[in-house]
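Rotation project, supervised by the postdoc (A.L.). Task for the rotation student: set up a whole-complex structure prediction and record inputs and outputs verbatim in this book. Inputs entered:
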Amino acid sequence: MTVTTEQARWFHDTFEKLCDNVEKAVLGKRNVIRLVLTALLSEGHLLLEDYPGTGKTQLARALANTVQGSHARIQFTPDLLPSDVTGVTVYDQGKGTFEFHPGPIFHSIVLADEINRASPKTQSALLEVMEEGRVTVDGATREVGRPFMVIATQNPIEQAGTYRLPEAQLDRFLMKTSVGYPDRNATVELLMNSSVRDRATLVTPIITAPTVTQMAEMADQVYIDQAIVAYVSALVDESRRHKHVRLGASMRGCLALVRTAKVWALAEGRSQVLPDDIKSLAEPVLCHRLILDPEAMFNGVTVEDVIGDLLTSVPAPQERVS
Amino acid sequence: MKQHHLVDALLLFLLGTIAFLGFDDTYAGWTYLVAGVAGLLLGILIAFVGRGQPVVVLAVGLLAAFFVLGGAVALHGLGNLSILPVPDTIGTLADNSVHGWKRLLTTLPPVDGGALLTIPYILGLVTGCLGFALAVRMKAALPPVLVAFALMAGVILLGVQDPSKTALLGALFGAVAITWLCIRGLRARALAAGGRRLSRTVIGAGLCLGAAGLAFLVGPLLPGLAPERTVLRGEIEPPFDVGKYPSPLAGFRIYTKGYQTPEDDRRLYEKDLFTVSGLPEGTRVRVAAMDSYDGTVWRAANDSGETEGPDDTFQKISSTLRNPLADGKQVRGTITVGEDFGGVWVPLPTALTHISFDGPDADSFRYNLATSTGVLPSALKPGDSYSFTASVADEKVSERSESWSGGSPIGDEAAQFQALAAEYAGGGDSPITNALAVAEKLKEEGTYTDGEPPNQQYPAGHSLRRLADFTAKGGQLAGNDEQYAALMAVLANQVGVPARVVLGAVVGSDGVVQGKDMHAWVELRMSDGSWATLDWNEFMNTEKPPEQNAPQPEELVTGKVVPPPAPVRPPATSGDPLDESVNQKANSRPDGFVLPGWVVAIFKYVGLPLLLIAALCGAIIGAKIWRRHRRRTRGTPVARLSGGWRETLDHARDFGVGAPAGATRREQASVLAASPGMDGAPGLALLTDTTMFGEAGPDDAEVEAFWEQVGTLRSSVSDSRTKWQRIRAAINPLSLLPSRLWGKR
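Outputs recorded:
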């Protein structure tokens, strides 16, 4: 089964409407919004890293608000316990039974605010649910349902009171991106409407959770040629051999790039993935999966530099394989 | 000055200095280097100051620098005032900027310099200004280096045939030029990022092989690659010097019956020399008129001084000429050269007014109006034919005639014969009477011999020594036309009648001129400036052989040292006895139509390079057409689709718009779209990609429709450019080269 032109057009229109809706809360960040929505429709999780006050939380809340479904917010603090995230089993004296009280993770969209302020133990509580979509508490496993998305925000790791996310945790995020400060025009508009204390409240739900799932399933049907898959493979392979990289992209990274590329292509109204889709998504999908050599980092090399180098050195495919 | 400007200026200066050192054998001393280097520095300075200004500003700056500072740089050795831009200095500079090149090439090296230092000064100025202006204004690596190469070529062409230090200067120049090219190339294209080291090495090796192959194939066809160095000094045609051709009178004996030679085919007495048609019987046909006697031979003078203007010199003429002597009856005739005649002297009647050659190279033909003598430096060869119109008046000398009262055509060389002339003349009342008396005396006392046995003691030649022997007291006058005509002319000049010797023949009834018809006669100048004929019969008795028991002649006692007789070598052919090389050259020419020399020269030095360039351009255009056809028609639909996009990129590349290699089509298209006429590139790239990477893949119809769009985009690109840009794009070979070579495509 393939995606028809009409389906692609519908997907594109819906995607643009979602962008417009979220943009009410976050001005002038169209591309970031597109990335965030791509992560949502890829059924992946998103890590937003930026300095305080750039609108990470606003973006996450606006995304949650645009989907008609349950959403919850967890403010990660150093004293937050894993059970505060996953839920806890309590003994009901009246009934004489143990009852499970689900935590905030049992929502469609979970905003994990300032995730790197929690202890590694609490951060690890998210590992299972982010990968498998279920939570095991006291030996009982519970599904969280679809759609399920964790939008985590974190301050740069150099900030005080932060804990570095473990590599395994980072790898479970489909994308990592930053919002960045708004440009001059957006800043002026924000200031002119400063009376609106919470811009995320401007965003009203325009899509249901089942529709999100439907769109995700449609994206799975997008055609990707073997030449482009080989291109992804070559990029990832090259990342593992790059002179400045200590740990290259994982297989999960490969899969993430292909999944997101399909959504990205469909969002542009196409039913096939192009090399440009891979190039557009390589940085947000791969950047948090690469660990640079300490010496390279000391010399000022960034992950973005390495990915740019990869995209330059690995030629994009010009012809299909079959 | 920015750092890269400084580097360009330094390397240009270095290249120019090395090139100027090539003048080391052309100029004496080091002043040429000072002038050249000063010009270079000034030129670079002008280009630097005028960067960003229109070209006309640079031109004005160059002119100002040339005239204002030219005196100080190039004319400082000509006097104190010459260093200032006074009118004389400016005039000298202007004169040398136009005529100095010729003077340099026609002056025997080493040249002292003087005003000719203007040449290196001009070369330095132009090279410095043009080279640095191109270096500043153009990103391409090659143009400024080419200017330096042009200077080097100019120095070589203006230099000498065998200069010293060629290997050293060539190696230095090449090394610096390559260094400059590399620096500019890296600066312009950042080659280091364009490919990997291995690929660059492979491409470099391929280029070297290609260049070597091209040099092997094309090199031998180019001018200037002869074993001898090509310099303009060797190509310049020196002023015409008729004196370099042997006197035809000196070889007269070859026409005679008694000519002694072991080779029968060189005995011309009864051989047909040439055939005359159209001329009346009895018309005199002149091979050469000899109006100068140097004590050794009578020869044709370059300028006898007979007239004020150039009429008494050998001038190039076209087919028709205004001949002041042509006041008689006009006749048309044709002369066909026989198998046994040739050489540079062209038999003609007097007072030529028109001539057209059928066969020989007529462009080199020269004619002397005063002596009615024609010379063809490229030489006549057997079978050549030429037609002419001439006035054939033939004035004879009579006692009533009055002779020219001006100077004699010969100097004091024959003054020793003054007494003899007076003795023979017998004291007549006019120079003409005396001259006729001399002729009569010679005829009366003279005997005729060609030196045949048993008269071998009477050799050929008409030098002073031979004439002295000829006229020695106690002996007998014994000789043939050569000695009698030579002596008659000498004695006539001694008695006050200007005289010259003419070699030729009188046309018979059948028009065929054989060796036995050849004679030498004398012409005497009359009071009106014309020349009247004194026929050989009037001073020579051909029927009277010398007496065998005649007394031995006494040595002529004079106060002068008599030079030895001129050596007379056996002639190779009848036409030009002493110049075998000319005859060999003439005989080696093929029969039939022969291209004029200037046509061959133009073809060789202009036509051939142009032909090569045209062939190269044609090959480039043909290769592109073939490539486009192949891309559109060959291979799978996928290959043809991909080929369509590559064709678009190559077309853009031809217009100087490069797209990054290794990028996606849409990235490449975004770069192209910034150029005029390429707005449709992004759409075409998207169409290519969606068709290429779609699930079904491209089919033939889609590919054909795609190529239609490629054609539309190509037309759009071409329409947005000027005609000149389109021509340049059509012959631009860059798109035919591997993309990695350029870093972009």
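Student's summary: The first helix of chain B runs from residue 3 to 20.
Supervisor addendum: Residues 191-195, 555-591, 741-745 of chain B have pLDDT under 50 and may be disordered.
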